[in-house]
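Per reviewer request, we include the raw input and output of the structure prediction for the construct analysed in the revised manuscript.
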Amino acid sequence: MKISFVSKMAWQNIKSNRKLYIPYMVAAGTTVAMFIMMSALLTNRFVQERSAVLTTLFGMGTIVIGIFSLIFIFYTNSFLMKRRKKELGLYSILGLEKKHVNTILGMETVIAGSISIISGIIVGILFGKMSFLILNYVLNFPVEIEYSIGWNTFGLTIALFIGIFFLTMLFNITQVTFSNPIRLLKGGKEGEKEPKSSPILFVLGLLSLGAGYYISLTIADPMSALTQFFVAVLLVIIGTYLLFTAGSIIIFRLSN
C-alpha cells in the first residue's frame, strides 16, 4: 500500500471516529503537558540553585508523571480499540488483509501521537510560562525567576511519548493480528471478563504494602528521607492495588 493512500485512510478514520479520537488526543496531550512542565521545573536553574531537595522532589515527580502517562495512555488506548473492534473486523470481512489493517492502524497512531505530543508541548510551555509569571507576581522577588526549557527536556519528553505511543501501536497491531474477524465484530459488545484470582499477587501485595510501611516508619537519615519516602509510596500504591484486585476476587469467591 502506498504511503499516501495509508495516510489518507488513517486521517479519514480519525475524522470519522473524532468522538473517540478527540478525547483520546486531549487526554494524551494533557499528560504530555504535565510531563514537560515537571521536567522544566527539574532542569530550571533557579530550582537547582535554590535547593537540592527541590531538585530531588521534582525528579521524583517527573518519574511519577511518566509512569502515570504510560498507564493512562494505555488505558485510554484500550478503550478506543474496544470501541473500534467492529470497524476493524469489517475491514477484514470486506477483503482487507490484516497487514493492511495494521498499517492503517499504525499510521493512525502516528498521526494521533504526533498531534498529542506537539499540542501537549505547546500547552505545557504556555502554562509553564503563565505559572512562572504568576509566581513572580505573587512572590515579588527582587530578581525575576526565569522560565526556560532546555533541549534535553524537549528530547526527554519526545522520546518518552514516542516510546509510549510505539508500545500502544504494538498493542493495537497484536489485537488485530491475533483476532479473527468474527471476534473483532463482536468485540465491541463483549463485557469485561471476570479477572482470575491469584494468591501470588495477593502475597506480593501484602509484601509490598508491608515493605512500604516499614520503610516509611524506619527512615533514619534525613538526607535520604525523600528518596526512601518515594520508594515507600510506590510500594504502598503497588501493594494496595494488588491487594484490592487479587484480594477482592478471593474474598468474593470464598463468600460464594
